[in-house]
Amino acid sequence: MMGSAMPVFPAHAATPERGHSDLVLLVDDMPDNLAMLHDALDESGYTVLLATQGAAALQRAAQALPDIVLLDAMMPGMDGFEVARRLKASPATAHIPIIFMTGLTDTEHLVAALAAGGIDYVTKPIKPREVMARMGVHLGAARQARQDASQARQARNALDAFGYASITVRAVDGRIIWQTPLARALLQAHFGNPPGAADPLALAHRAPAPAEQWVPAPVQAWLRGHVLAGDAAERLDHAQAEPPQLSIGQGTRRLTLRLHRQAGDSAGGGDWLIVMREDSNAKLIESMGLAFKLTAREAEVLYWVVQGKINRDIGAILGASPATVKKHLERVFAKLGVETRTAAAAMALNRMRQLHQQFDG
After folding, report:
1. Domain HTH luxR-type: where (predicted)?
2. In Å, what is the CA distance from 143 to each residue of 96, 128, 139?
């Protein structure tokens, strides 16, 4: 049996408090292995969660979402290979790196471990220092991947907040990698609802894409002419500027699309970011509200301040008294952390200018 100093978490236990340490799920049906590794990991500052059976490992992984899994390959009942396959099949746990611990050194078993979703393996008898060295490599890569994903989400949220929307297209085959909700909304507003059939960007050899990945025919033609054509990647590699933008007008609203090359395989054309922006008073006001957490009326007041209007003029435009406009403006100042209308206008203009420089420069 394991020593009393070794914590055992029942199946219904809440996720242990990890603080700033990495959470390790340690899965092994042998108490001695668990005790030795638990003590070494704990002394090194890791937070450790334990499981002695495959079913318990799956449950605890789903509950706690550990940073890494140390998984015994051979266990009675559900073995480690099946545990790994199920973890990788679940969207919630598929990203978690798995290191197999195995006493089997035959090539076919090591290949099976990697094929099941393992990122690495260590052989028994377990050497804690070796295990932690392997863990350090994969935890560092996992942290970087999470940081990159977080930064990408923040960038997309910032784009959406200022009325921009974005789609990423893989140039080699036109596959849409992701698109923001605002991108779908803008396409629908300017081109109507998508047909329920295939993605117009899908090539003949590809399976139909979901309806939400629909791109209208004018945008499709623009992409094919500048990115998806057979020699587009070669031509673009020699070009000094990015492809010309596409501008589509609808009444007082205008949708502008620009292409920006992202990191990728230049031989295959890389990935392309489509940045869309709709210009209209209403959209700009909405963007200011989102960016600075303003109410709809506060955002309207800030918009007209940026346009150089005084309180009396703003009141006439909005159908409110100058005193009411002044109250709204005072709340705007408080939310922006400024004291004057000049400072408020400068802050709003600066935020918009930063995005313009990043995506239009």
Report:
1. 287-352
2. 11, 22, 6
